[in-house]
Amino acid sequence: MSGRLFVIGLGPGAADQMTPEAAAALEAAQDLFGYGPYLDRVPVRPDQTRHASDNREEISRAAAALSRAQAGATVAVVSGGDPGVFAMAAAICEAIESGPPDWRAIDLQVVPGLTAMLAVAARVGAPLGHDFCAISLSDNLKPWAVIELRLRAAAQAGFVLALYNPVSRARLWQLDAAFDLLRGILPAGVPIVFGRAAGRPDERIAIVPLSEAQADMADMATCILVGSAATRLIHRPGLPPLVYSPRSQG
Q1: Superkingdom of this entry's organism (predicted)?
Q2: What letter would DSSP give residue 227?
Q3: pLDDT at position 1 over 60
Q4: 117-244 in CATH: which number?
Q5: Where are the domains of the chain?
Q6: DSSP per residue over 199-213, as a string?
Q7: What distance in Å separates the CA atoms of residue 148 and residue 133, rounded to the nearest whole number?
Q8: Measured by CB atoms within 10 angstroms of the end CB, which terminus of the chain is less buried, N or C?
């Protein structure tokens, strides 16, 4: 008799940004699987077992969690933000599709979470107030040429962009290349929001025009919002500016 598998979004990192549904699923789990820094956010009881792994081991992590659930355990796989946004829900589905037939019978529940682009947007106003899309700049799982194609198409179509995975220790040039591409399409004054660790004690939010955006303003904990030509900046005396994309656009 198989157990249960929860795929849980922990939110951006602050404890009060985790949903009650996610907290209840974590409470019910016997085994907790995830990338080490994400598991570090979760209090582990003596009767729970923690299985930490590296951030490039998503499929093997998914397979291990599914095997444990098939054996009858209640299992939680954790992701930062939302598990369906560049995270573990897709890896679990991929493992189920290619794995043993018994995995398809496991009681699976994906528990949504507050994702980074929403947390960053809330800090600065409403930059996602009109059409937007999310693009990962990591070329570990897709070619850089595909990323360039999608960046160009989205910017030309007037989408606000949420850029995930902007830099890493192994990917140092891609973000500057993305900004150079976008500078050839968008006005120089389009606001760029660098949102690092939104909601956590080490949060850092910066707003600069596209003409001044540089890769060294971001790290692995940063989500970047790129405005469209319609996105506006409202300056306020003594207060941070507001960034918003009007709901009415031609």
Answers
A1: Bacteria
A2: -
A3: no
A4: 3.30.950.10
A5: 4-114, 117-244
A6: TSTT-EEEEEEGGG-
A7: 14
A8: C
